[in-house]
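=== Per-residue structure ===
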Amino acid sequence: MPGETQDRQFEEARRDLHCRTLSKLDGDFAGLVYLASTRDYNTGQYVHDGLAAHFSEPIAERALAAAHQEIFKSLALSPLQVLVNELEHYIRSSGGDVNEILKTWRNLQPYRMLVPTRCDLLIVELFISNIKIALAIVEPDQVGDR
């Protein structure tokens, strides 16, 4: 059955993505940023040469989109303190200047690019609102000292 084969390949691609890539990243927020970065911002299509070479482009795209939606929804629906902790950890581990990162995130709002291509608008609004609150809670000296 062609559908069963594609479903099996999809699940294998999701496991591969998780085991080889996402599990190696430092936290869920880093995973969200990574997955969003695999999406072409002009077309909305997800691209991952390694997955596409091992499976196929459509299977790779489907696995990336599913993982992106899953991690986004998990973070968006998590308690605010969890999101604050994830954001602090991400900023701390980025290696950049904490003040500059916070200033950029508050002014340019790059977190809006983290939203998956297809997502419930209420969850998107909740995520954006919670990120704004988290950014207001995070203090540069707290992030830098941990």
The chain has one domain: 2-145. The mean pLDDT is 92.
